[in-house]
Fold:
Amino acid sequence: YHPSVWGDQFLIYNEQEVQAEVDQIIGSLKEEVRKQLLIGLDDPTKHTDLLKLVDVIQRLGIAYQFEMEIDQALQHIHTVYGDHWKGGSTFIWFRLLRSHGFYVSCDIFNDAKDNTGSFKESLTDNVESLLELYEATYMSVQGEAVLDDAHAFAKAHLEKIANDPLQRNSFLSRRILEALEQPIHRRLPRINALRFIPIYEQQVSHNDSLLRLAKLDFNRVQSVHKKELSQLSKWWKEFDAP
Structure:
């Protein structure tokens, strides 16, 4: 066996003395977010915000902390509306429900078409909405032509925006290129969280509790991995394989 290219850098692991305090803060923040998830269930005016909250939680890499609450929220949305969603953020609604095993009709995408059967050009005025449309098209199944058309439409316009000389190397351009390279549902949650946390932090309307929880949780998980690497490195060094 050749010597490890990492050397002995993983041997030493200094566990934080304040970890118990951090765990307590995380527990408190989790309870706050849990309440936010549950409080919107019985108020139809908050169902769109509820879906957006679930989406952000997933993209911040902390959905595993709220699996039961997320399942309950999406089940409730599906039970109340079925295929006939009446709130905003239609593309997020479609993607979330389908990605969690709720089959909802794609007919709602026809509402985004004009009288000629083409997708409305006004969709390109809002890049966030265009990105949501693009991500939603990856939830298609065979034979859903409207989603195939939506995918081609969204991809063509996103590529055009990303290649615009005025947008090149901008924050928006990088977000689009990341989406074109790999859609959300194909990304590794932990790596996606590392990319999304600074994006979410720059949003004026970000949820402070959610953002702090995501950062603390990311650091805690990273700390666990470091500890495991240290234990494994020590085992290997003591093993002293010839």
Q: What stands out?
A: The chain has one domain: 19-239. The two ends are 7 Å apart (CA to CA). The CA atoms of residues 19 and 138 lie 40 Å apart. The mean pLDDT is 85.
